[in-house]
Amino acid sequence: MIDANVLLVDDEKAFVETMAKRLEKRKLMIAKAFTGEEALEHISVHPKVEVVILDVKMPGMNGREVLKEIKKHYPLIEVIMLTGHATVESGIEGMKLGAFDYLTKPCDIDNLIAKVDEASNKKRRHEEKIMDARMKEITSRRA
Predict the structure, then answer these.
(1) Handedness of CA 50, 56, 58, 63 (dihedral sign)
(2) pLDDT tens for residues 33-77?
(3) Which end of the chain has fewer CB within 10 Å, C or N?
(4) What is the structure's pLDDT at 2?
(5) Which domains does the chain have, with CATH numbers?
C-alpha cells in the first residue's frame, strides 16, 4: 500500500469522520468534504488529490454531478463512488461518467483500501506517461 491523497465526500458527517479515521490508520492522507460544492472547491485549492471517495446521494449537488465536474476539469483524478442505494443501472451510469469503481455502503474496508490503491496507482501511471511524452517532445526539439 502506498500513501495516497484522498478526498472523502459524503453529507453524513458521522460516516465521514469514522471512515476518515479508519483510512488514516492505514496511512492514507484524508481530506473531508460534506457537500459536492465543498469537494470541488477543495480540489481546486489542493491539486494533489489523487482519489475521491464520493457518495452518490447528497442534497444539492449529487455525486453524479460532482463526478461529471471532476472529470471535466480534473480528468486524471480517480473517483470511487459509494452508495447505500445501489442498482446495476446507477453503477453502469457512474462507470460511463468516468468513475473508477462503484461500491455499496457499508463497504468492506480492505476492499475500499485496495480500490484506493489501484486508483492512485492508475493516476500516477497516467501522470508518468504525460511527463514522459512532454520530456520526449522537449528533447526532440533540441535535436
Answers:
(1) positive
(2) 999 999 999 999 998 999 999 998 899 999 999 999 999 999 999
(3) C
(4) 63
(5) 5-142 (3.40.50.2300)
Q: Which amino acid is at 29?
A: M
Alpha carbons 69 and 91: distance in angstroms, whole number: 18
Backbone angles phi and psi of 7, in degrees to 5: -110, 120
Residue length of the chain: 143
pLDDT tens-digit series, residues 16-26 = 999 999 999 98
Residues 6+ apart with CB under 8 A from 77: 43, 49, 50, 51, 52, 70, 71, 123
Rg from Cα positions in the chain = 16
